[in-house]
Queue: 3 jobs
Job 1
Amino acid sequence: MPSQSETSNSQTRPSTQDTTQYQHLIVEAGIRPGVGLIQLNRPKALNALNTPLMEELRAVLAQWDDDPTIRCVVLTGNERAFAAGADIREMADQSAISMYLRDQFRTWDAVRRFRKPLLACVRGYALGGGLELALLCDMIFAGESAKFGCPEIKLGIIPGAGATQWLPRLLGKQRAMELILTGEIVSAKEMAQWGILNRIAPDDTVLDLTLNVAETIAQQAPIAVLAAKEAIQHAYETFLTEGILVERKVFFLLFASEDQKEGMQAFLEKRKPQWQGS
Ligand code: DAK
């Protein structure tokens, strides 16, 4: 149900882009009244989510959680990718113990704990951690070019930021199994049919659409908005924490396998992996 503001032609491009403060993000507070926009900005790596980017995201969200002028936030990428996953280059040589010690979950948990509504606007690839980041958002709007998937299995690992728990809840077990076990990429249209997207729109208008919805939310009673988000999150999360812990244990374990090394090395060398099953 489009709101009145969804049909407006409000200006959506940032009036000033804060590129000095953040290396991997373009951030615009007040792109619309009460709305903040965060654009993931590692275009050469299809916005692969490395630690510095995730740390910057955590910092912006922490700042905006405390900023009463920001009431709703939109997270987006570019035309080619929302994010093609966690950074394989950064993970390829990690061991189970180094992954455990780095505690990358700190930044992901910060996204999950953000108290204000967070809307994902996806164009191009949202794969692996990119899809998981979109799933941590409260709504997902997709351009027609959007492509979703969990290709981790092709790297010899499994999702590490919640997809094994979120997808069965959102799509049902069978579709979650299909996505995670085949690693295949599905279109925005298919994802919408599976009921996981709020809306699809042409790529050149989907950010406007998302910002319009964000603006509508930003106009509501601020405390009621926080309370509504908190209550809705509880509907999903009561039994989620244990599942997430199981996923993390198994995820770390895979970094003790030869197949993880082979899968990620093969990606970086642009060849097919040779699985050893060890
Ligand atoms: N990591 C690093 N670099 C990436 C990347 C990624 N995920 N995806 C793409 N790139 C880089 C490519 O290496 C390439 O760099 P150069 O070779 O030019 O230096 C550049 O982006 C452009 O990519 P392509 O040349 O491959 O572009 P194509 O159009 O041919 O293919 C593609 C697009 C998206 C199909 C392809 O790039 C691709 O398959 N990318 C990998 C997708 C993937 O496997 N994603 C899942 C990664 S594993 C965790 C939290 C989360 C996770 C894990 C732990 N914790 C908190 C601990 C999540 C894990 C994952 O997401």
Job 2
Amino acid sequence: MEKRVAVVNAPAHLKGIGPRHAERLARLGIHTLADALFHLPLRYQDRTRIVPIARLRPGDEAVIEGGITFSEVVRRGRAMLLCHLQDGSGSLALRFFHFNSRQEQLLGPGNRLRCFGVVREGRFTLEMTHPEWRLLGEESPPLERHLTPVYPTTEGLHQAAWRTLIGQALERLGEPGQPTLQELLPETLRRPFGLPPLAETLSLLHRPPPTVAPTALLDGLHPARRRLAFEELLAHQLSLRRLRERTQRQAAPPLVGSGGLSRRFLERLPFALTAAQRRVLAEIAADLAQPRPMLRLLQGDVGSGKTVVAAAAALRAVETGAQAALMAPTELLAEQHYHNFQTWLEPLGIEVAWLTGRLTGRARRALLERLAAGDIQVAVGTHALFQEAVAFAELALVIVDEQHRFGVHQRLALREKGQRGGRCPHQLIMTATPIPRTLAMTAYADLDTSIIDELPPGRQPVKTVAAPDSRRAEVIARIRQACQRGRQAYWVCPLIEESETLQCQAAAVTAGQLTALLPELRIGLVHGRLPPADKEAVMTAFKAGALDLLVATTVIEVGVDVPNASLMIIENAERLGLAQLHQLRGRVGRGDTDSSCVLLYRPPLSQIAHARLAVLRECNDGFEIARRDLELRGPGEVLGTRQTGEQSLRIADLLRDQDLLNAVRHAADRLLRQHPDCVEPLIRRWIGAGARYGEV
Ligand code: ADP
Ligand code: MG
């Protein structure tokens, strides 16, 4: 185990670091010298060499030396001291806005200076404003021997304090009698990638020799950065593995019925399962038969038919006399699932309950009692509803839909919720935002994965076009045409306002305009602020074909399933991300007619928005879209960690360090087998003792 906060090892005991500094450091999570050493520079300055003035480019930060050829106080409004500095290769202007008479004298013609500052393009020559400077005598003082680190910091902690702190920490690193910085990556793991040892890594990053290009240190390609990225990814991998092992040690009810109930259900469906659905269902059934909790991620593109698989899985629980719960992220989607499950399962004599926020008072109490008594076999609701005190007689399976908005922490919380009497329910997590395989294995290392990689037969790819807002009239004519042919359409008004209220108002205004322009159509409006009963009424009417056009906010993003709807207009499409656009578009193309999607945008398009719309025009495959999305946006957003605030990586970058991911997984296997004593310290070092997934 790594020693924590040994007193001699605390920053407060260093020269130049007082209690005030120590307090600020503690707020940054730095309690030991080792912690400080993992606080890496943001960038570097090169003060190791003198650059000839003629070689400077705007934006450079450099040391120069030269003689002052001209010096004058210019009074145009605010007084300014202007000097010219010449070094034989060229000359440059220095500007000072704060100066006293002594400084004015020192900066007089004939004197020699050394300056360090940022070079800017001036009107006549290159300039430095307020450089650091010192007067030179006969001899030049020595230059720095290392690149100068610039640390990310907070108020009251100056760069000088950081340099003092880190400098002393580095010196103590190798001293006898000092708690050492433990090397947690055995040589055998480092060698194949040429990753340097930890002590060398840290001393290089804090004190790079002048031969190292600062850019190489910052773009993450230097072996020292790669070493830390590797270690960090490994720590995350290990913490997820440990979580997984803990789950595997828990007990769960083995669901080993004959499978007759789910077979009867499948026989009654108007379609046959696709091969992919059958394969995935078999994987799930095999997991459910085990006496330890299933923890499976079911990935499948929009419209690939995950709901049927979920229902068949639920029946495995019901068959053994246990219960299943299905959670959806929105009330709208929960309702949709409820209706599906009801239609499918009630004919089999199974009672399905909808836990809605609208249910209050006695009716709610009665429902909860029947759930607790086991009279109801399947419950559907939003996550929020399940978070309240809902007791089950015997909950054996929890199905979570559209989990991509949730991170590890939420998964964990759910798992703990479901725990009763030492037994854990099985868990199936469904997501329509497929993520590339290596990324999935890294981000979801605590889960098993099943993939539905096939759409039901007969699906027509949705034809997608992008059109500027100026072609609105044409688009409206197209809606009229489609609806006259008995088709239905969506008009989506995505978030362009900060507040949900304003967004809903905007949707209402659009609905009003469209009603005026298309008087012959029956137009409905649905948004997040509508009372649930109204929302339900509108959705039911649209499903039944009693409405031609549904104007909606992005509440319809997930799950809404109306096969007769074949046209979708998405306004302000340039504001939405790829995954969301693909998700929305998935609301059409569910029937057997040609479907299309019009992405309306407001020019001018930014480069990235242009690229996104192009991807959607060219591509209908969610996996491919996810891959392109990753390239365009970076993994943080693809995984949805931005929204959930899940702990992000400090040094590693899933996209840049992709080539390490496989190796990291293997390294995790090896470390667990051969060096189990390194596991805990690694997790502590990178994820911290307070991390949820560090808890026992
Ligand atoms: P998603 O994976 O996006 O949740 P759904 O489960 O909502 O997809 O399924 C989309 C539509 O496809 C539904 O209308 C569903 O009944 C239908 N469906 C599912 N599986 C099949 C299949 N094997 N053949 C034909 N239609 C199917
Ligand atoms: Mg779905």
Job 3
Amino acid sequence: MSEKADIALIGLAVMGQNLILNMNDHGFVVCAFNRSVEKVDSFLKNEAKGTKVIGAKSLEEMVKTLKKPRRVMMLVKAGSAVDDFIIKLVPLLEKGDIIIDGGNSEYVDTTRRVKECAEKGILFVGSGVSGGEDGARYGPSLMPGGNPAAWPAIKPIFQGIAAKADNEPCCDWVGDGGAGHFVKMVHNGIEYGDMQLICEAYHLMKCALNMDNSEMSKVFEEWNKGVLDSFLIEITKDILKFKDKDGKYLVEKIRDSAGQKGTGKWTAIAALDYGMPVTLIGESVFSRCLSSLVEERHKASELLKGPPTTEFKGDKKKFLDSIRQALYASKIISYAQGFMLMREAAHLYNWNLNYGGIALMWRGGCIIRSVFLGNIKTAFEHNPKLTNLLLDPFFNDAIQKSQAAWREVVATAAVLGVPTPAFSTALAFYDGYRSKRLPANLLQAQRDYFGAHTYELLNEPGKFVHTNWTGHGGNVSASTYQA
Ligand code: NBP
């Protein structure tokens, strides 16, 4: 077969098929392959009928169709399937050829694969792909990282098919090793946080303000015209007013037990591993876990009493706007925490992350796309060395303006007994972050009292000392290290 395909794509499930059609629309010739090869014929006869897409029945045949350097992209289930394909592909490729993994792989796996492939002369790229089915078809957000030598060869395809925001592609080179998949992981964690915040706003509207679905939908429609303008607020507006065949609101019939595929959990684990207080994403993961304890919650709901009513008795219109402000302020905290985590990982892995560029990559095409990300991009453009988003004048000002309403919502929710874990943890983080002095002095004293773990004095940082607090303990201290 003559070498005519610009790129091969392995994996003909929802993401792969749509990405192929998107590439085809942008003038690239794609060779399609799938483990179950019968799907190749079916795809060519149906979804890809009338396109320039070609198919291959084996990896050998697929590789022969490719222009050099060969570009092979996988969109298969993350995990061993990716390693299996790499093992089969490497002997068929030449030095300088490129393998791209567009699945939701763990960044540590990508770091390993980049290294292993480089040892064999193959350029490996791990790319976050966000936007689901629609994004893949009409413009995803793409977050490629890995072997930088691959970027010039894949850039035209990636930037060609990516979503555009402010006329710029939502795709740029992220960094070495697993940087692309790390950034995608944080994106997914932030998505967990955004969804949880919206759910808490909905819960308060329903339980504290007794609003019906049509009213709530209108509120989200209104919110979508301001600073909260985003894909997730927009779909929430649609979901809330969607009626089932019997005329009843569908969302109210859905079992309140949240599923998860793991990327939020990975973000929380990375936060713990790197010692970064990414509390809002953590709470969002735990909120899903709590929701799934349905039977236990049903029993507990009969036994564990809360306040006599969840109904808010004050100025409802004003409280509704306070919920909007609490959502906005909490969202700022969540993104500030997500960027803190990326900054720490960049420091540890020596990635040169472009934070404004990342905000632009998320600005369109993906699930967390929003107007707000434009403000984040601007903040990092003004100051690429910004240590924390909260210190940017725009976001500092936004938090100051919403602060009173945010505190009112968290306090009222606590009084009424309506759970708002993400709103609350965001506010606790804000108060902790802005505290010149925290009670960790007492904590250090406790550690030294019971475990001789030592402490530093305010006027002698870096010098660890131990006190014999009781008079009968020894004077020997434990080793000093950070877990
Ligand atoms: P799936 O995650 O459902 O994977 C289906 C593909 O993986 C099929 O091509 C299947 O081949 C192949 N596959 C499986 Br399953 N096990 C395999 C194995 N052991 N060896 C070789 N191939 C295997 O597809 P998807 O939803 O299109 O997602 C593709 C990737 O993109 C995943 O990593 C996913 O996490 C990620 N992603 C998905 C979305 C989304 O919205 N769905 C969004 C962003 C990223 P077969 O046909 O022979 O079974």
